Amino acid sequence: MNRRDSIRSLFLGSIAGGLALESCVTEPNTEIEKKIWKYQYGRTPKEQAHDENLLGQQFFEKSEIIKIKRLANLILPPNENGNIEEAKVPEFIEFMAKDFPSIQTKMRGGLMWLDTHTNKKFGKDFISCSEDQQHQVLDKIAYPNPNSNEQNQEVQFFSLTRNLVMTGYFTSEAGIKELGYMGNQPNVWDGVPEDVLKDHGMSYDKSWMPKFVNQSKRNDLAKWDEEGNLIS
């Protein structure tokens, strides 16, 4: 459930990042807070103040967000489980750039390089290039020659972007569904098997059985009388 500090409450990052973009355009801070705080179980006042401060900031420009969104879709194309937009990956990356300022220069520099490179190679910016042209550019920095030092900064930029995209997507609802991760699932407990009880020379008191293994009451809260006896 976390997207940061593991990378720090990472799931929160996905939500908070999206809301951060909204707050700069349409909604007042009070509305943003209503949306985000319901996901911040156990947040300390200091952590809440930190996140609220980040929500009031905007790092990437709209043109940069557009490039990030395109990069994310090239790295992880949509499928039947979901897509980059639904998982709010661009918003997640926006939030992480504010939460970890150390990645800001690398991200912004890499996005600028994309346009510089494609303008020289194709005579147009990265977004205006065809998908095939975009792949040509990215393939060089996604699969670099390990024995070459050329484009070292660009390679680091793409590696960082790819890691952010994968983290953002696979910690979202759609990504977790795609992984098939089920988490802790309740099962039906009908008591210790009879053969195990016999092996240990034990048995259940029949009067207590309905209280322990009545599955129709599995979601009921236990109640006790003043003497500590279980009554339901």
Reconstruct the topology from this structure.
Layout lengths: L2 E2 L5 H14 L5 H9 L7 H11 L6 H14 L13 H11 L4 H19 L8 H12 L9 H19 L2 H7 L14 H6 L9 H5 L19
Helix pairs in contact: 1-2, 1-5, 4-5, 5-8, 6-8, 7-8
Would you kindly provide a brief summary of this structure?
This protein is mainly alpha-helical and 232 residues long. It is 55% helix and 1% strand.
Task: Describe what this molecule looks like in 3D.
The structure is a single chain. This protein has helices spanning 10-23, 29-37, 45-55, 62-75, 89-99, 104-122, 131-142, 152-170, 173-179, 194-199, 209-213; one strand spanning 3-4. The longest helix is centred in the middle third of the chain and has 19 residues, at 104-122. The radius of gyration is 26 Å and the shape is elongated. The protein is mainly alpha-helical and 232 residues long. It has 2 domains: 1-185, no CATH class; 186-232, no CATH class. Helix 1 crosses helix 5 (89-99).
Task: Tell me the series of helices and strands, N- to C-terminal.
Answer: EHHHHHHHHHHH
Question: What is the share of helical residues?
Answer: 40-55%
Kindly state the mean pLDDT as a whole number? 79
Q: Could you give the distance between the termini?
A: 33 Å
Please tell me what the overall shape is. elongated
